[in-house]
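Subject: sequence -> structure tokens, single chain

Hey, anyone have a minute? Need the predicted structure for the following. Not urgent.
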Amino acid sequence: MTDEIKQSHPMSRRFRGFLPVVVDVETGGFNPGRDALLEIAAVMLTMDDDGRLQRAETHVQQIDPFEGANLEQSALDFTGIDPWSPEREAVPEREGLSEIFSSIRKSIKAHDCKRAVLVGHNATFDHNFVFAAASRAEISRNPFHPFSTFDTAALAGLAYGHTVLAQACKLAGIPFDPKEAHSAAYDAEKTADLFCGIVNRWLDLGGFPPPMISDEAE
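Reply:
Had a minute. Here:
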């Protein structure tokens, strides 16, 4: 045969055919059905031929509060976001999420994966807000798995003995500036660095790929 057989991307063989995408959201509270989604960042990951995970591009969208959304002042004080500032150049949920999802679908295709799996620090929070917003916006092509996630808080607790993002990054040797925290892009990028570091450390320790189970053992 003169034509080379195309090999699947190494990413497609690492996480059961899923593409991990690191997400961080900033919100107007803790209730995904009631409180506003204000900012979302998605960090794409890639993998080299040796199976080492690397951070790639970051996509960010500022989001207008949906009609009737609740905005807790304590949450706004925490994030420092002024929802009505024109400098945010915010867009409606449907537009912002559609842009993010489109970039994710392109990355899924480029890595020969089946769908995306959300990676987050305390991932359930981000997952719930993304899915609530997608439902409100009537977006049917949500690239994320409906319930599976990778939670770096749990992984960091295992790997470094700490679940707080800033402290876990410090223990992992990842620079973390508290003044930059609570920006969706910054937190997502630091979460991505932490996730990549843990996955790559596991690889270095010989934990992946797992040993093959013999036919006799089955």
